[in-house]
Amino acid sequence: MAPRFVFSDLWVKETRRGTPVVVKMENPNYSIVEVEEPDSAFQPMEKSRGKNAKQVTWVLLLKAHKAVGCLTWLATVFWSLLGSVKRRLSFTHPLGSERLGRDRWLFSAIKLFLVASLAILGFELVAYYRGWHYFKNPNLHIPTSKLEIQSLFHLLYVGWLSLRADYIAPPIKALSKFCIVLFLVQSVDRLILCLGCFWIKFKKIKPRINDDPFRNDDVEGSGSEYPMVLVQIPMCNEREVYEQSMSAVCQLDWPKDRLLIQVLDDSDDESIQQLIRAEVTKWSQKGVNIIYRHRLVRTGYKAGNLKSAMSCDYVEAYEFVAIFDADFQPNPDFLKLTVPHFKEKPELGLVQARWAFVNKDENLLTRLQNINLCFHFEVEQQVNGVFLNFFGFNGTAGVWRIKALEESGGWLERTTVEDMDIAVRAHLHGWKFIYLNDVKVLCEVPESYEAYKKQQHRWHSGPMQLFRLCLRSILTSKIAMWKKANLILLFFLLRKLILPFYSFTLFCVILPITMFVPEAELPVWVICYVPIFMSLLNILPAPKSFPFIVPYLLFENTMSVTKFNAMVSGLFQLGSSYEWIVTKKAGRSSESDLLGLTDIESKKMANQILRGVSDSELLEISQVEEQKKQPVSVKKTNKIFHKELALAFLLLTAAVRSLLASQGVHFYFLLFQGLTFLLVGLDLIGEQMS
User: Fold this and answer.
1) Is the CB of residue 403 less than 8 Å from the CB of residue 227?
2) 266 is catalytic
3) Which of 52, 164, 312, 397 has the most crowded CB, counting CB atoms within 10 A?
4) Is the pTM of this model over 0.70?
């Protein structure tokens, strides 16, 4: 029997705790026990030692069940995503592809780059698997002597390396440096604008008016203190939004005898004309001073429509004109917040209000648009209005002094951006502008990518048309030199031409090319750090959009192909630069009680209105009401956008090439950018077009 050890006696005799005690037995059959600490003998045993085989099996089964559940969830999500893509693409029909027309030059160039990249990728893949890793490290020795050449294919590959290093890389480096300089200049401009916006917020600078600029008594009477205001609502086939826009405008708080509303209908659909005419009749019966105008010859698009309306004889009696597009819903106090700024300021020509969007949270596309437009209004328009008294008129939600329009030459039909055209000409004639960031007018942003793309094409081709037409007028005008420099260098070149040029050239052309020409590789800060910093600056006016910073960055690069194409088309009069396509709207309204209140009032006054109309008008009203109740069959389709798809495959090809070269940041950027182009090219972002 082994001897018993009385540990308690040892602990009493031991004065230093924690000293190791080693007990060695003379009998070799006995074990050696080493006690590190006195308490270690009474420490609980580890749980793992107490588990039997059955418990271990249950633990393994639970872990396996958890892993299978996670994989099942991922598979379900992936399958649901594929199902949604399939449902979206199932609506695509033979006519659902984008019509390139005369803008095929860019698509042809992208296809050429794609074919060349695929050929080079295949060429270098063969070289890679043969062990020629020169492209993985450009600093390695390239064989030059005949003894080092292994085969004819090796000779061709070495020749390609020499051609790439000596003739292809230098011009790419020069172009990339030029684009990087433009990128940094534009980044500095954005930073200065943001600092100016912070200064305005810090100093609380904003245009102010007197508490009571007009006499409030006798509002329903003569209202002699109130100026005569003309309100124009230009529209064209606006079935979805005409009713809510007219309802909001007809409820403006202004003396009725000092206000006239013109509904300028350019619709070519007789059913829509009938609906709008009936709506005008309804509000006219309520006592609103409203008239309906329809042009038989629809020339000049919106500019021609406004020009025709301003030629009426009764316009001479009015001092100001407010313009609202068909989807805009001003608040009743809009005129009382804008028109008073003209008082005792004879040099003031325009008061511009801010846009607010009723459908900004409808889908990812509308959220991304909201980021851009918030920066435009909060930063660009506000800073230019405070420090320069000049900015581009937004075409709607603004009040013009009619004298300023007439002295500047009125509405011209020479471009598709008549609003920017009249603003530049008014600025050259010395008129000043005021921007009101606190006065907001509800409107919509496009919910489908096709509608948004057409809108952006017009917004970026028109300024280049205008720049080409008015450059001589700017140079020969009598305004100060710094104002001329601001117009030419900042307003037109930097923000309208340079931005789409470097964005498309640098991130969609040079970056994928440098994956096949590693001698001209772009630094990481150009493709990662600076773009993220610029995206942060753009998102500052819309802080709730911070979770969308990565989709915003990728989507802005995706839109650069449309903006670049539009810029070149407008500058050189190519393709559809003079084409005006009305932006498709959904007819949404966040003011749900606006139309509800209108319906209640309509029901209350129905008998009074019907008593004052003839039998023919009564029949027309009943037909219109029946037409409204009839459901409109809408077929939603997907479009295939060729340029975006071609760029998607180009970027994904470059991503594969980057993966072979072990370029981490470049690979991930090209991969996610290519996937973004793929989603946009398949029309999987935003709503489907009806």
Assistant:
1) no
2) yes
3) 397
4) yes
